[in-house]
Inverse folding.
């Protein structure tokens, strides 16, 4: 990170705060008023010119005024940002999440994403943890027709994964009940990534009438854990981005919504953020997703237990109010962690 003089830092901070609020290019006269004319417009213009040469600002039009670059936002987040505590109204809304009694994990994640979207006025996102690292609690087999079975895998944290399985034969209910009891006793508390090995071992030595269903169950596990994009991603508030002035171009909006639909790319980006604990800010081109070059993602990890964690956050424009949104994301992650640990 480059070293700036105190005057450059002050000018850059003023420009950042002004642009975050107005979404308009910031000129020297605006800055002069903000500092009560302590520096002349000429002095400020010289500092702005130096910042432009260093890649922190650019001039979008012939008119006066500069706009911060992605480099400027990175410097601002790393070196100039002063997070502020959520206000009284925000705290009431955030505390409302932990006060609610939830019976399903999916409800927590859906409400958390909606709350983030409503509080921050941008897209709120919550991603469930990776299935293979979670712990098996129980399985349920529901017979829907003569040859169709609904398989429900329940994790130790209460997350449920369901798949339809088509069998070649009509399996009797008592066999399904016996299979359920067998798997629940054999596999409870095991990480999902070990289940395939256990089932494969059982296939070589257990009852012949178990073989067909056990093979199907293994196929289901392969499908669930073999695809990262099989994880549930809860996104709320994408329509709020339509109101962002710098993203009002219909072509840009179309590209952005297509990026939201490309869950695989988004998951890879969020997984990189999850490699470290706590708050992580991805700015513009750092995401390596072309459609999100004008966007920032503020994320934080939440935990189910010591081994399993997921990620949540907010997706918005580069000029998000970081000092306000970062504490909200952090508070929400702690609230979701508390809720999941008491379920």
């Amino acid at each position: 990170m480059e070293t700036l003089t105190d005057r450059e830092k002050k000018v850059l901070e003023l420009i950042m705060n002004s642009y975050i609020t107005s979404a308009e290019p910031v000129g020297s006269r605006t800055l002069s008023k903000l500092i009560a004319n302590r520096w002349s417009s000429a002095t400020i213009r010289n500092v702005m010119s130096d910042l432009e040469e260093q890649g922190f600002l650019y001039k979008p039009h012939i008119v006066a005024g500069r706009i911060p670059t992605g480099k400027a936002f990175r410097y601002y987040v790393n070196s100039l940002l002063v997070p502020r505590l959520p206000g009284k109204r925000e705290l009431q809304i955030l505390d409302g999440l932990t006060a609610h009694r939830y019976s399903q994990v999916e409800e927590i994640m859906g409400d958390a994403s909606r709350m983030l979207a409503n509080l921050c006025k941008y897209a709120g996102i919550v991603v469930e943890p990776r299935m293979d690292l979670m712990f098996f609690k129980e399985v349920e087999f529901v017979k829907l027709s003569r040859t169709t079975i609904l398989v429900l895998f329940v994790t130790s944290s209460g997350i449920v994964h369901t798949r339809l399985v088509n069998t070649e034969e009509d399996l009797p209910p008592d066999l399904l009940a016996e299979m359920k009891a067998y798997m629940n006793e054999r596999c409870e508390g095991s990480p999902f990534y070990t289940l395939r090995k256990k089932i494969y071992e059982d296939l070589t030595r257990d009852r012949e009438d178990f073989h067909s269903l056990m093979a199907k169950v293994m196929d289901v596990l392969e499908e669930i854990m073999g695809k990262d994009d099989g994880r549930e991603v809860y996104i709320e508030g994408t329509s709020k981005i339509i109101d962002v002035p710098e993203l009002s171009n219909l072509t840009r909006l179309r590209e952005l919504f297509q990026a939201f639909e490309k869950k695989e790319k988004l998951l890879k980006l969020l997984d990189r953020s999850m490699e470290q604990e706590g708050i992580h800010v991805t700015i513009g081109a750092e995401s390596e997703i072309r459609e999100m070059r004008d966007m920032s993602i503020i994320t934080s990890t939440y935990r189910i237990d010591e081994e399993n964690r997921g990620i949540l956050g907010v997706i918005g424009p580069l000029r998000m109010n970081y000092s306000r949104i970062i504490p909200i994301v952090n508070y929400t992650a702690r609230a979701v962690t508390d809720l999941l640990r008491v379920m």
